[in-house]
Amino acid sequence: MKPILSLLFFFLFNLINAQQTDYVDFKSCKVLVKLDTVEKSVEGSVRFQFDILKRVDSIYIDAKNMQMTKPVVLIHLPSKTVDTLQYRNDSAKIWVKSDFLKDKTYELILNYKTVPKNALYFVGWGNDAPNQIWTQGQGKYTSNWLPSIDDMNDKLKFQFNIQFDSDYEVVANGKLFLKTNTEEGKTDHVFIMGRPMSSYLAALAIGKYDKYVETSESGIPLEMYYYPGDSLKVEPTYRYTKQMFDFLEQEIGVPYPWQNYKQVPVHDFLYAGMENTSLTIFSDAFVVDSIGFNDRNYVNVNAHELAHQWFGDLVTETSGTHHWLQEGFATYYALLAERHVFGDKYYYWRLYEYAQELFDQDNSGQGTSLLDPKSSSVTFYKRGAWVLHALKELVGEKVFKQAVKNYLMKYQFKNVETANFIDEVEALYGKQLKNFVAEWLEAKTFPYNKAMASLEQSVFIQEYLMTDCEAKTAKCDYYLSAPISAEAKSKIVAQVPERITADVFKDGLKVRQAIAKSVVKIPEELKAEYESLLGDDSYVTQEAALYNLWTNFPEDRSRYLDKMKGVTGFSDKNIRQLWLVLAFVTPNYQEELKQQYFNELISYTSSNYGFEVRQGAFSYLQALDVFNEKALENLYEATKHFNWRFKSFAKDLWGVLSNDSRYQDKANQIKTSH
Ligand SMILES: [Zn+2]
Fold this sequence. Notes:
Blueprint: H1 3-16, E1 24-36, E2 41-52, E3 56-62, E4 67-68, E5 72-77, E6 81-89, E7 93-100, E8 105-114, E9 120-123, E10 132-135, E11 155-165, E12 169-172, E13 175-181, E14 186-192, E15 197-198, E16 204-207, E17 210-215, E18 221-226, H2 234-237, H3 241-252, E19 261-266, E20 273-276, E21 279-283, H4 299-308, E22 315-317, H5 324-342, H6 344-363, H7 377-395, H8 397-411, E23 414-416, H9 418-429, H10 434-442, H11 448-455, H12 459-466, H13 475-481, H14 486-495, H15 509-518, H16 527-532, H17 539-552, H18 557-563, H19 574-585, H20 594-603, H21 611-624, H22 629-638, H23 644-658, H24 664-673
Parallel strand pairs: 1-11, 18-19, 19-21, 22-23
Antiparallel strand pairs: 1-2, 2-8, 3-7, 4-8, 5-6, 5-8, 6-7, 9-10, 10-16, 11-14, 11-15, 12-16, 13-14, 17-18, 20-21
Helix pairs in contact: 3-4, 3-5, 4-5, 5-6, 5-7, 6-7, 6-11, 7-8, 8-9, 14-15, 15-17, 17-19, 19-20, 19-21, 21-23, 22-23, 22-24
This protein binds zinc ion.
């Protein structure tokens, strides 16, 4: 290859071709990959089929930091004549050069190897955390591990052939078509997607899993994956899955578009969940037991990612300007699914919370138009959901539902913008929606007053708004004993914690949680009632109650610690970690075991645990102000973590400690030895 000449060549193409989708239509992508857990590398071959729409001299495939391991091959169809092509690899794209003729179909074969920096993660292979490999395409670019098309406006039919150790489960988009054992304990898994999708939705997840399978009313297999030790958590984690799936198919009016639906929890995930086509990957922090279900369940994320299978995966935004067509719709339909299982109050309550968040955002000067691609997720998700709630109220349920159905059918497997949806609603409504669009979508400010007027149709919301104790009048005592909603009573408890009586403890889980969180000074006469909070079916309540009781009644500390000794709490070990800290600092409590408790807390800072556990342990060590060498080493390692939120937490804390004269020397030593 002659670099200068070909550079010129490719440069020309660049100038005339702002959008490759005008020239090329990629049809399919057949992938064969092998994953090496020692090198943390991906090696594979990819075979694209594409049609040429306009004659062009070169095309590209997105491929970040990839090494081509064999010559790039072009196959002319239908003749099957084969050419070896010149290519240029600029570390972001592979450019290939040929005389690509209009209306012709070609295949291109790339063989590659890469150690992905992003989008595919090897988790746990060097420590005691569960050994997993999983991907996150959206926001990270699939082309970090798989040569593909980052432009979401080109949809391809994918086929994956993944080779991996036989004792692991391998899951990818589409239907498992074939599973064959190869040499030395490896298994080949072939997954086929029947329908096209954008490359950012391509995904795989590998780990040790068992699965529980149900079938939807329409016959779609619903595969729910779980860690082998977690069989008792399957029911609470995946509660309402089939019910919500059946509901959404009915409500949306368009059958679920893919061959099956799989949900896989993974360790150290970057978000709550990701709606890869037919394969939702979600954070294992949502794997809960039946007590954890009451506080932090997966239901909302479950419904949200499922709704994306239509809104996002079946019809996909053309660009970030129309991001609400994905997130607003997923948030709204998740709310409808939750309304179906939890009832109307829940639905209005969430809308109320969303409206408050949007109101606060506007007041802090952060409000944006819903069509601003730089909007916050509060805007895309929550204002987007509000738009659909308000639109349905305006045009009526019948028009709304039919318009959504028409929109999905018309643009299925294609890309959409806001006008495409609005046009479908206008066509059935018979009137222009110009004013609605200007106010609800385009304006920078969320129409809060209109939203509140809509909510006040709910008696439950009316009652909540009217019940208020900011002024701390005599009415507060009445509210505390009145048969009002748990939300309203919790608000009063938070406003006047000093006035609660023993009777308020009889109000159920939510109000009792409000007591545990708000009543931090416990009156002697309520001690017995307060102690009963330690037995509530809520890890949030138990944690707050343990801390407050321990603080208020020093003479009973040992008794509280003995009672809560075996409790772990959520998967982030919230109660166990608090317990260790309290046991460590309580004078005369199990003196001989104190070092052991301290060591256990230190162990939770290591990469054997999920970042949620680690962040909790680091925070407690900071509060106790006792970092030992091991903890400092683990913290330094955490500053390099791929999860940016955890990484930035660790970096901040590392910054504080390495400026602290007591830790400075050790911190420098660790830094230089790594
Ligand atoms: Zn979403």
